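Let us work through a complete example step by step.
Step 1: write down the sequence.
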Amino acid sequence: MSGHSKWAKVKTFKGAIDAKRGKIFAKLAKEITIAAKLAGGDPDMNPRLRMAMLRGRSANMPNDNIERAIKKGTGGGETADFADLTYEVYGPHGVAMLVELSTDNRNRTASEIRSLMTKNGGSIAAPGAVSRLFHRKGQMIIARESADEDQLMEVALEAGAEDFRAEPEGYEILTDPAHFEAVHKQLEAKGIKCITAELTSLPTLTVPLADAATVGAVTRLIEALEEHDDVKEVHTNAEFPHQPD
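Step 2: predict the structure and record it as tokens.
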């Protein structure tokens, strides 16, 4: 889930990995396999594979799992043809969502996603109605203890970052998608480890969720979508209330 606040997302991501490790690893392995099938198993020549492997490592996915997924994609055993789709969705209380999927059966996936919408208070939006509310960015999140603020800002901006934000929980670096890899490689070269590093869709305007009932309704839809085997990522402009540690 890519929502706001980003720090809540990081905590949610870590918690989800602990609670649903097998499911998350299976989804990551599927994306690695698809990427390898489409453009080969060399991450230096395959940007989609590089990104999928980065997501796997951010989730502490074992290297053996990653290698098996690459071999499956390059070994001729994966015969299905996958298509990438993005559904534009309105959730409860006017929350906007972009739902990224990879499917080998568009009709089946469409039927199942519409059923999820009906059961959880969502609806498919008109093309462009939701996507215009988001912009594509490279995003890196770094814990405070992982880097010195002044050094991190200097490295990031010199490497081509668009924005650097220091907050009590840690640091956020934003880039144009084209500059994401250059900035991330510079951080790695300096020994700076990211909690998360990804290309994502960030909302230009957020919708605050004011009470527990609203939070519950939106969360149920997001979780139902994320449970679907074909769903890779759910981006939302919902702004969840701050939860103390």
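Step 3: interpret the result. Residues 2-74 form a domain with the Arc Repressor Mutant, subunit A fold (CATH 1.10.10.200).
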